[in-house]
Specification:
- The protein has a single domain (about 10-155), classed as Phosphoenolpyruvate Carboxykinase, domain 3, CATH 3.90.228.
- Helices cover about 10% and strands about 40% of the residues.
- The protein contains four helices and eleven strands; from the N terminus they run βαβαβββααββββββ.
- The protein is globular.
Length: about 200
């Protein structure tokens, strides 16, 4: 049950690094809740508002389908995830190190009043605003997030603060569309521009 009684639904982007995102999407267990305790807001599942942040955590492959993993592969794969944020606790700064390390730190910090954390903006692997920054959403129950799309793209070139990407798409539910509630993406005619600024 959500603390405020509100679902507060939104779409976010999530990189799966060395795990094929299709495996995560098909998993009955959902997202892995056993992340590292030294993350900004302790163990939880982290989602980004902006794809430029998640791009640094993208699964890479040699092929469009993602069946041939390769750390230097030309194809990048990210999950587009439907997240039920509920009552959100806004935390611009990371939690103190000692607080992050405690078992169950995320749920303890949220108490009975909040369901998720909105942190940052942060840069990939660094606290605070800067290049490729984004607000992050952190949830501590896997039932709050459902993978809906896999965005597959190839970076053609970084030019004047924009990535120009060719885009393929995969959907594992009924219909194949990108929803307009993904403001960092402008999708048209098979191309995607992700703003960096």
């Amino acid at each position: 049950m959500f603390c405020s009684g509100l679902l507060n639904e939104d779409y976010f982007v999530h990189g799966t690094r060395g795990t094929n995102p299709l495996e995560v999407a098909k998993s009955r267990l959902g997202f892995d809740m056993d992340g590292r305790a030294d993350c900004f807001y302790s163990r939880g599942v982290y989602f980004a508002h902006r794809p430029r942040y998640s791009h640094h955590y993208a699964f890479r492959s040699k092929d469009l389908e993602g069946s041939i993993p390769a750390a230097d592969g030309p194809f990048f794969h990210l999950l587009i995830v439907h997240v039920l944020r509920g009552a959100t606790k806004k935390q611009p700064d990371p939690w103190p190190e000692q607080e992050r390390q405690r078992p169950g730190a995320g749920r303890l910090a949220l108490g009975d009043d909040f369901d998720s954390v909105e942190g940052g903006p942060h840069r990939p692997r660094h606290a605070g605003a800067g290049e490729d920054d984004s607000l992050v959403c952190v949830v501590y129950k896997s039932s709050q997030a459902m993978a809906e799309f896999i965005a597959t793209y190839k970076v053609l070139k970084a030019l004047h603060g924009f990535y120009k990407m060719s885009l393929g798409q995969k959907k594992f539910f009924q219909h194949v569309t990108f929803r307009p509630r993904l403001p960092p993406f402008a999708v048209s005619a098979g191309f995607c521009a992700a703003a960096r600024g």
